[in-house]
User: What shape does this take?
Amino acid sequence: MLALNSGLHVVGRERRRHRDRTTRLLAFVDTFTEATALGLKEHDRPAFGAGTDAAPHQEPARQLEAASA
Assistant: This one.
């Protein structure tokens, strides 16, 4: 639901409440497209470890070798 709310913020209010039904439908589809993209971005952020060092994700044997070197 949070991603859908973010998708609604990306698509302008004018498009979502337009008089033309086709424009409203396209805005609805764009909302879901943006929500999906934002949701995947938020999902991938912890998986890829954005902004963190790669050392804590190494295997323990490699961490010992790196510490002794």
Q: What stands out?
A: The chain has a mean pLDDT of 74. The two ends are 48 Å apart (CA to CA). The chain is about 70% helix and 0% strand.
